[in-house]
Amino acid sequence: MKPQGFCRVTNVWQPELETFSLPASIPQWPQGSGFGSSKIRLGELEVCEVTKFEFIWGCNLSQDGKRGISFYKPIGIPDGFFNLGHYCQSNEKPLRGFVLVAREMFKFEPGHCCYSNSDSMPALLSPLDYTLMWCSDDGGDENFDTCGYFWLPQPPEGYKALGFVVTNRPEKPQLEEIRCVRADLTDKCEAYHLMVNTHSTFLKVPFKVWSTRPIHRGMRGRGVSVGSFFCSGHWISGEELDIACLKNLDNTLHAMPNLDQIRAIIRHYGPTVFFHPGEAYLPSSVSWFFKNGALLYRKGDSVGLAIDSEGSNLPKGGTNDGEFWIDLPTDGRKEMVKHGNLESAELYIHVKSASGGTFTDVVMWVFCPFNGPGTLKVGMMNIALSKIGQHVGDWEHFTLRISNFTGELWSIYFSQHSGGVWVDAFDLEFIEGNKAIIYSSKSGHASYPHPGNYIQGSSKLEIGVMNDAARSDYYVDSSTQFEIVAAEYLGGVINEPCWLHYMREWGPTVVYDSRTELDKIISFLPSTLRYSVQNIFNKLPIELYGEEGPTGPKEKNNWVGDERC
Question: From which domain of life does this come (predicted)?
Fold first, then answer.
């Protein structure tokens, strides 16, 4: 049996792919730092982003020709810079990608504090040779122009290859085609998304292609993606790759935006968050929640303490030890507070480095005083749940990833309960200029790029928790309604609010047996469905059951780390 995604190369052609550009032009960013200056220093290396390519080879992955993959070499490389690897992408999307090209920083270059030491080995060297990793040649005598050849550079001792070279001829590439990088200037990378799984008749071996990403990610990670791919016919998951990524050794992260540039980015790209027309549990500001009677409880105390509007009397630091939690007011304001206050709502912004400071992540946090119960879908039936999913204090987020080379919006991360998904800019909906739309799902507030009825469970079987997303008159414009609460790399420029340092739960632990409600639902189903439904329920994240109060933004692992996907 062929593995999923396995397909032979059926023919080769040069696709006519559309290119993508954002709906509006990118503005002139405020002056200061290296943000948007097209080049970024990584220490002994300086890199720039190349987004223009020349087609080399491609293949169909389906009989109808609608699915395929193409391989490209970068063109228009600036003088003095060198290619590190070729680029590939699916033909199902517009041609939009990048590879980094690099040059060595030389001694006493004006304006640069990091430069090459003449006593050390050069930062860049040509490979010694190439190894043919795979080719589509079937061994016949026909024209070689329809064949693809994949070459791994063989680096000198003490150096690493950062990408592959693809040709449509059997001759080895020129050694000057690419550069290898001194090992101490590199970091480890990993195979990320499997892009193709195919084989050639002649070599009788499978061939797989993955996108790559640095292993060390998040705001403390210094791995820098070069935009290349990894390919192999024998690689086993967990093994170290034959290629590496770059490493940013410039501790100043000079290409990260300053405060004026951050504000300009948010004003230019800030999405509009639409809530479902039937949404009963809308967002509010944190201060509105506190002013309207939110209470702080301590373990062993039956009476809650009123929280001041800034959260200055909340316990700071530590970990979520179960000692404290926040709850709704106990007076007549309880139901009012549960439904939020859209007029006061704002997005809380955390700005951090990504991909070793070559991208900026603008993380936008939304606070809702209450998360409503879920709705279960089983085939044609929609079953409103009485308790499952509801909890006090709901924190959700989405993330804008911005290129520090140009200031261009590259993608948005949509957080969806215990996971999420990155969506490229070309697949976003825009409401005005370069401002995208975020659809917040009914009751649960998960984020989606398009309206629709999403199922958390099995879409194929139509069994799971529903996430309905649609446009309405309930919305928050993050380009105007925002507060920057943290940007650690700026070194204390941002005065972080007191409540941000509250590391305990923003809602009480609710003691009820959620399994009882689920088991009752299962018992009414036809016997042929019960096993499938039970199996899917067991895989749903525990947070959907709503039994524990959620923690605040700083307690989430993506505060320091990369997004989960």
Answer: Eukaryota
